[in-house]
Amino acid sequence: MKLKFSYFLLAFTAFLLSSCDPENVLKPIEKDTKLLFEWDDAKTQTITFSTASISSSSAKVIITGSTATITGGGYYSVSGQMTNGQLIVDAKDQVVKIQFNGITMNNDTTSPLFIRDAKKTIIFLKTGTTNTFTDGAAYTHVGDPNAAIFSKDYLGFTGDGNLVVNGNYNDAISSDDMLYIDNGNFSVKSIDDGIRGKDSLIVNNGNINVICSTGHALKSDNVLKPGKGYLKIAGGTLSLTSSDGDGIHTSKRLIIEGGNITARSLNSQALRSDSLVHISGGTVQINASKKGIESPFITISGGTTSIISTKAGVNATYGFGGITTDGSILSISNGNLYINSDDGTGIDSSGDITMSGGTVVVQGPSDKDKEGINYNGKFTISGGFLIASGPQSILSVKTPGTESSQNSVKLTSSTMATNLINIQDASGKSIVTFKPIRSAYGLLLSSPDLKAGDYNVFKGGTYVGGTTVNGYSKDGTYGNGTLVKTFTVTDKVTTVSF
């Protein structure tokens, strides 16, 4: 049975990794995106909504009561205000470009904007305008559309105007195809998902604020089609808050290449992927009531990621549980990773951990049943700087394996508590200065500066100048501490008690 499960796991892993081709699928911009996101004033036709009627300069717009339907491709400027109105796009295999030029529309019984059929629809948010779409809490139909702005096909946004979307029924903005945000200022509230691109969701730029109740702030969830269901953030400023869902959730790859992202989850994970999370750039600030980042495969190769969580800060897992390896991998090669885990393991992998570069600082939990770092497979370190604290327990902080090429030292002490800890080499050069946020029993250090030789451990004292991030201080001056231990590094992993 174990053998069959292993074969299944390997096959499933291969499927997940092959389902998204990084050379073809994960391109931030399609080949024709530049042309798609260009506006032509000379070709613009108008659609104007009012409290009592709708008017249009285009023969391609059919007006029926409080509904305007765009039936052909072209450029359309939409403005005005209407209660229980609707704008429909029904232009098969044609590109429709719509400029929001100060439009406010609500509909109590269905989507105020429904893109039923189009090759691609691009929304232009005109400079200096605020555009608002709001739906009701109960629709008169079941199924599509089910969001305040809903598209069956490709949906893009650009411009630097403002878009306010209130999804009171289900999602706020949803596309069954790709959803691409090139720019814009978004204020989004929803009952379920905030912004959803079923096939894919790409954020290239913009200011995006999402607050949702039961769903995920950003989501892509096509699990059935290869190359679909991925989410990519290349830039922009994003504030993402979910009460009961994830800040960001995707069934395939979550790629963060840039941007300034704040992700909050009040009752779940801040970042969750069923396949892979890859952070290569940007600034990511995570606040989670449970886990910060969770995925079977997590790679960090750049950027700065800061995590405050009650449970595991970073959790590489398939979610099967147990103490044997499940094939998951956490890989760190560059960037900065700061973790403050209050009641869970700081870094936890159900499989392996590899570290070849970067800076990792872990403030471990207070719970004695948890650890600063834990893994079921192997932990191999060949480069980078790592400092991690752990509570008073048998393991406290698991050390890397002896097959590692970079030296590590584990310090344990019943008097460490929240005292400032400084480690110096025999010449007096500081290797690390660190202050646990919570009472610590174990401390794991790995650094390229940790060579074979003698070292001194100081407790207490002061640190002046420099910078301190997550308890780790550098580029300043340490002094006035008490020498509590002298030790010698002779092996890849040295254990010291004081």
Give a quick rundown of the structure:
The protein is mainly beta and about 500 residues long.
Fold blueprint:
Elements: H1 2-18, H2 33-36, E1 44-49, E2 54-56, E3 61-64, E4 67-70, E5 74-83, E6 86-107, E7 113-125, E8 130-135, E9 147-151, E10 154-159, E11 162-167, E12 171-175, E13 178-181, E14 185-190, E15 195-197, E16 200-203, E17 207-212, E18 218-220, E19 230-233, E20 237-242, E21 248-250, E22 253-256, E23 260-265, E24 271-273, E25 276-279, E26 283-288, E27 293-295, E28 297-309, E29 314-316, E30 329-341, E31 347-349, E32 352-363, E33 373-375, E34 379-390, E35 408-417, E36 421-425, E37 430-434, E38 440-446, E39 453-459, E40 462-464, E41 467-469, E42 472-474, E43 477-479, E44 482-489, E45 493-497
Parallel strand pairs: 1-5, 4-6, 5-6, 6-7, 6-8, 7-9, 7-10, 8-11, 9-12, 10-13, 11-14, 12-15, 13-16, 14-17, 15-18, 16-19, 17-20, 18-21, 19-22, 20-23, 21-24, 22-25, 23-26, 24-27, 25-28, 26-28, 27-29, 28-30, 29-31, 30-32, 31-33, 32-34, 35-45
Antiparallel strand pairs: 1-2, 3-4, 34-38, 35-38, 36-37, 36-39, 37-42, 39-44, 40-43, 41-42
